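$ fold --in a.seq
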Amino acid sequence: MRPTVALIDLDAFKANVALLGRVVAPAKLCAVVKADGYGHRARLVAGAALAAGAVGLAVAIPEEGIELREAGVNGPILLLSEPPAEAAEATLEHRLTPTLYSEPGRSAFGDAAARVVGTGSVHVKVDTGMHRVGLDPGEVVDFVIGLADFPGLRLEGFWTHLAVADGGADEDRRYTELQLSRLAGHLDDLAARGVRPAVRHAANSAGAIAHPAARLDMVRTGIALYGELPSPEVAAALERAAPDAALRPVLSLVSRVVAVRRLDVGERPSYGRLRPLATSSSVATVPIGYADGVPRRLFEAGGEVLIGGRRRPIAGAVTMDQIVVDCGPEGDVAVGDEVVLIGSQGDERVGASEWARLVGTVPYEILTGIGPRVPRVVPGARGATVRGWRHWLRAATGPAPAP
């Protein structure tokens, strides 16, 4: 019933898929929708990705893939980490494609395939320098050849993950080239044994945009699909690759003013009384807080929101459920006014990347941190009216505009 929602622009999402698909062609695009679609709701964006040209989807854990299957998503779904042995049967029963890189995992999935599906596709991951998960380099040939001991497993893909594809330093570029060279070496070793995986992939969003050599057969794009980029260097590379197009932000985080009070100069709103008001000001209360994904440090870092098409500074500590906003001495704010925390209003925009820069993190964390009690709404979709918001606003200020 709070007037706080995250608006998901599926047209923008589809446009981003199409744009990135053109940039990486002839490589195919796999849409990464893990972490609930980077906070955008995986069940909303998964179908949109496939409709816009993605050849498949990628998630982190079996539960994410199973949720998509139960929502009616039928495209290929790749698991980016090896599932635990006890998840093997459920993974294959739901037609999820596991990534494998351990002997126990290979055995568990080989046995499960024989029991439940007959034959299941798998991808094998090698660690070329990320040093997180994946086969050790010396294990690759024996591991892949050993798949023949499990007739139910069919090698479809072979891949790695790039550690610094978003970096702009010469050292970062050299390391990315080294990782790609190592991957190519493993593929040559496998080819010498007669094994040629159908799908070779290495590129995340940064690799897909900034390192054309990393595109191979398929790229795994994540953050870029949602209209954000991991670094200025990647943004510059995209501008060079597609000078007449740009990614469109997909998520807007929007609320409404629920209270306004006039405070004298020197008053200190919110917990801790951290900062005095520089002038007599109208201070607006907005029902969203750190439990919803607004970083508590955003106030101290100089965070702003949009009200009436203008940037307005957060006036005191972000609390669990609410923020207070300094709307200045003019008093041009009222209960019911729209508040944009992430998104555009008038000629102004506040992006997830701005929040990330202010609080010292990455836009991934900002987007995935928007909490589950914030409804995700697709404007214009059938049944997507924000009933609580509209009812509340009508009671407070009269008829509400359509969201």
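$ fold --in b.seq
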Amino acid sequence: MSILSRLFGSKPQASVAGLGLPCPAQTTYVVGDIHGRADLLETLLVQIDEDSEQYPDAVCICLGDYVDRGENSAATLKTLQDLQTQMPKTLFCLMGNHERMMLDFVDHPEKRGGRWLRNGGLQTLASYGVSGITEATSEERIIAARDQFLDEIDPVMLDWVRKLPLQWDSGNLIVVHAALDPNLAPEAQDDRVRIWGHRDFTNLPRQDGRWVAHGHTVTETPFFGASRIAVDTGAYYSGVLTAAKVSPTGAVEFLHT
């Protein structure tokens, strides 16, 4: 099993030391953006399963962006839905902005479909057998593709995606797809910020002792510091899917494919 420990040396960074440590109530694994890489998800889940054997109350949180860009969005969604159904108190799946774009395509194909197609939706449609369209497809053809997509995707799956939550909390750890506004309390956040981000998030640490684990913003290596834990390592093109392991003691390690 490959575990990449990233405690940034034997001493915590000054930003970490000054803000305390992230301390969830139980060992928490936070999985970064998957983007259709069902193969990497399977590999990482095996690692998490092996590593978590000594933590009977451990939970796993997936950060969203399960679809688009990679080639196996349909299989990724099926894997996560099946596992969450089997382990509803162990595996939690959040919504990302790419799931939101997919739902916008379903609900308003003529207005929102083009944006989704330009941001990886073509690969998701292909994974459901919908082809023959491009990013510049006409409005009429986009609507037809939406109808074909609805014929292929299980309505139960689509309902599951619609109901994905935007946030998960434990102790002083908050998990969202993209960001929180560092100037506002967690309960005062705009839902759009949670899945699309905020301009101050990556350069202004929170001052309330809360830590935010997130994806959305690709980093070459995972990051731990300044009230953030970032785990989107660009799996769809890098081949590296990352999970943060956050312990109640405040220790943070990273597992990766």
